[in-house]
Amino acid sequence: MEQDRIALVTGANKGIGLEIARQLAQAGLRVILGARDAGRAQAALDDLAADGLEAETLHLDLDEHDSIIAAAAKIDTRHGRLDILVNNAGIFDFADGAPGTAVIDSVRKVMETNFVMTLAVTQAMVPLLKKAPAGRIVNLSSSLGSLAVNGDPTSPYYAARYIGYNASKAALNMLTVQLAEELRDSGIKVNSVSPGFVKTDLTSMGSMTPQEGAVLPVRYALGGDETGTFVEPDGLTPW
Length: 239
Ligand code: NAP
Prior knowledge:
Layout: E1 6-9, H1 15-26, E2 30-35, H2 38-50, E3 56-59, H3 65-79, E4 84-87, H4 104-129, E5 136-140, H5 147-150, H6 163-182, E6 189-193, H7 210-222, E7 230-232, E8 235-236
Parallel strand pairs: 1-2, 1-4, 2-3, 4-5, 5-6, 6-7
Antiparallel strand pairs: 7-8
Helix pairs in contact: 1-7, 3-4, 4-6
The structure holds NADP nicotinamide-adenine-dinucleotide phosphate (NAP).
The site of NADP nicotinamide-adenine-dinucleotide phosphate has 29 residues, from helix 1.
């Protein structure tokens, strides 16, 4: 049973993030639920408590850089380090779409949350991860972020043309590759994990439950020596 490791999951109040938090807590880690809304954070805490699990909440709004900086300071004060960062918070916007028609404000918003501010969270947390003996960063990517998949007519995802969402996950993958190299000597492992097609509020459909979608991100959060990889439940995803 784990005793000490401290994990932050962003967007942990529902969907895959809540289930990642639950499975990490079940593994015995100290879990910090990052959430932008206090009421939704408390509901998630209550949900975990109903399973006999303890966690703590942390105000973390990717729309507010100040809240990200403050969150890192609070983790430093409470724990002095962070072992695991799961960059799970993300959005999809129905005004997104094919390059010829996607609404530009929608594309900008999706890029901002899924890439730019996820980078901001990562920047804020890396100093805390460096204080842990074997830091791990898991970026919740998507097969839709694969450049190869987007250009492959035989792929089941070929028709899913969302220039903002798909580009945001391709950009997140670039963060994975660059950060894995930047941190190679630190021992911190950084990976992009596609959870599968999961039925949540983000998709409204999907063949997997959030519990099932949490399994692979949790596996990469808890261990493994790989770094700079892009994986999905079936194995390695082509970039
Ligand atoms: P979800 O149920 O909609 O949950 C998204 C979470 O992100 C919520 O907790 C949400 O908080 C939070 N969030 C969104 N914007 C935020 C912001 N600005 N600041 C803080 N938190 C924010 O979606 P999901 O399906 O579980 O998705 C989780 C991750 O998996 C996403 O990164 C998504 O792109 C990725 N993913 C999902 C699938 C899938 O099939 N579902 C497939 C591939 C990748 P609120 O409740 O406050 O909105």
